[in-house]
């Protein structure tokens, strides 16, 4: 057995620098197709608490263990209780109990339109809710600068002094 964790093995395979650009595109294209099929099944019954070992879930979804590890890595941030992906082996018990809103937002964040546009989402969220979640996720990554305080404006600490004589003195 390899000394590397399953997750490290997956990442070595998925981000192999020895593969050509074409080989990597083929690998990821194949993976995204598999990922989409698994999400379609999960979203068809979003209330089902899917549990089992890594190996059992791989068999349930008709995948090899390494592909299932990649899927678990991708969905982990959207789970109600994260799986121990850093240390898991094929006999580790894992769950796929996900937070629907978090999963949708994470798909938007990953720019995975083939996932957040799945028709199964229509049974879970109405159009307005999907728009709201999409907007919330997009805005969460927007950095907004605070309004700059002018030197001669009243100090925001409430002292009544000009900013330049109060909190701005040492700035």
Can you walk me through this structure?
Pfam families: SEC-C. InterPro entries: SEC_C_motif. This is SEC-C domain-containing protein. The chain has 171 residues and is mainly alpha-helical. It has one domain (6-140). It is built from eight helices and two strands. A two-stranded antiparallel ribbon has the order 1-2. Helix 1 crosses helix 4. It is elongated and about 70 Å long. The mean pLDDT is 92.
Secondary-structure map:
Blueprint: H1 6-14, H2 21-44, E1 51-53, H3 54-60, H4 65-75, E2 93-95, H5 100-109, H6 113-116, H7 121-124, H8 127-140
Helix pairs in contact: 1-4, 3-4, 5-8
Concise synopsis of the structure shown:
With 171 residues, the chain is mainly α. Helix content is 49%, strand content 4%.
């Amino acid at each position: 057995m390899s000394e590397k964790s399953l997750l490290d093995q997956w990442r070595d395979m998925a981000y192999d620098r020895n593969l050509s650009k074409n080989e990597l595109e083929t690998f990821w294209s194949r993976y995204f197709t598999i990922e989409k099929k698994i999400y379609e099944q999960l979203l068809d019954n979003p209330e089902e608490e899917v549990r089992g070992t890594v190996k059992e879930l791989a068999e349930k979804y008709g995948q090899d263990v390494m592909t299932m590890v990649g899927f678990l890595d991708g969905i982990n941030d959207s789970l109600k209780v994260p799986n121990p992906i850093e240390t898991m082996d094929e006999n580790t018990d894992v769950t796929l109990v996900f937070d629907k809103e978090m999963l949708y937002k994470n798909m938007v964040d990953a720019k995975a339109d083939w996932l957040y546009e799945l028709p199964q989402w229509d049974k879970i969220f109405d159009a307005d809710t999907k728009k709201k979640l999409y907007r919330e996720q997009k805005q969460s990554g927007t950095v907004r600068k605070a309004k700059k305080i002018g030197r001669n404006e009243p100090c925001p600490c409430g002292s009544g002094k000009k900013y330049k004589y109060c909190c701005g003195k040492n700035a």
